[in-house]
């Protein structure tokens, strides 16, 4: 699969529309000073696909990797991006350290699902995503922030929180008119969701800005501003 140019410096490696794959979109903000990778991919294999597409497109290697939040499908590819500085919200450190200490294997995944069947959707997707556990590691951020941080390339990472993950951050590329949303406005993960939980439309609406032309959620197609406004008005 090839990278798809969205606008300005922003390129997308599209996610898998099959919800059982749990494979989000990965974004690249290309810059000669070193590109910014937004989310790591959901496995080392996924990350290697993104890396190959990056090379095929002739774009600069990533220097920074931004986690939009700590969920596995956004961070498990990080160990396949050596040499990058990993940027994430300070509240992502503790859960990722805990995840890093778990004895990940296909056997462990099966055991966890037997103990808690609600984990089935997520853990089966993990089992399909990782073909080998050799060299696999869950990596916490190496650079953290509280409210907002601006990277040397002008990319702005802003904490927004939300019910999906308390550490959720959005990534603004001002010169390209693009806002990368991660999963911030989605409901909580399936194993934590109640029948009353739905999309956080108020959070999504608060992020709309006339200076932003494109809104990119990790598991949906990018929306131009007019379509994003219409979608929220209809919701």
TrEMBL record:
Task: Give one Pfam family.
Answer: Lactamase_B
SMART domains attached to this UniProt entry: Lactamase_B (SM00849)
Which ranges carry the Metallo-beta-lactamase domain?
Answer: 23-219
Write the lineage as a comma-separated list. Bacteria, Bacillati, Actinomycetota, Actinomycetes, Micromonosporales
The protein, known as: Glyoxylase, beta-lactamase superfamily II
Top-level taxon of origin: Bacteria
The species this protein belongs to is Micromonospora chersina
């Amino acid at each position: 699969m090839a990278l798809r140019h969205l606008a300005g410096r922003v390129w997308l490696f599209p996610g898998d529309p099959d919800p059982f794959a749990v494979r989000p979109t990965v974004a690249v903000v290309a810059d000669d000073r070193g590109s910014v990778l937004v989310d790591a991919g959901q496995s080392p294999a996924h990350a290697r696909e993104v890396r190959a597409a990056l090379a095929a497109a002739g774009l600069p290697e990533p220097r920074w990797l931004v986690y939009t939040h700590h969920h596995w499908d956004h961070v498990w590819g990080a160990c396949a991006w050596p040499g990058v500085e990993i940027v994430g919200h300070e509240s992502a450190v503790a859960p990722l350290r805990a995840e890093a200490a778990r004895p990940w294997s296909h056997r462990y995944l099966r055991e966890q699902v037997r103990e808690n069947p609600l984990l089935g959707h997520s853990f089966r997707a993990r089992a399909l995503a990782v073909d080998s556990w050799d060299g696999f590691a869950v990596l916490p951020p190496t650079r953290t922030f509280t409210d907002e941080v601006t990277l040397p390339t002008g990319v702005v990472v802003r904490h927004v929180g939300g019910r999906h993950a308390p550490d959720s951050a959005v990534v603004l590329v001002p010169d390209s008119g693009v806002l990368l949303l991660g999963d911030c406005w989605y409901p909580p993960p399936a194993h934590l969701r109640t029948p009353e939980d739905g999309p956080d439309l108020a959070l999504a609406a608060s992020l709309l800005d006339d200076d932003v032309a494109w809104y990119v959620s990790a598991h949906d197609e990018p929306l131009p501003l007019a379509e994003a406004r219409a979608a929220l008005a209809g919701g």
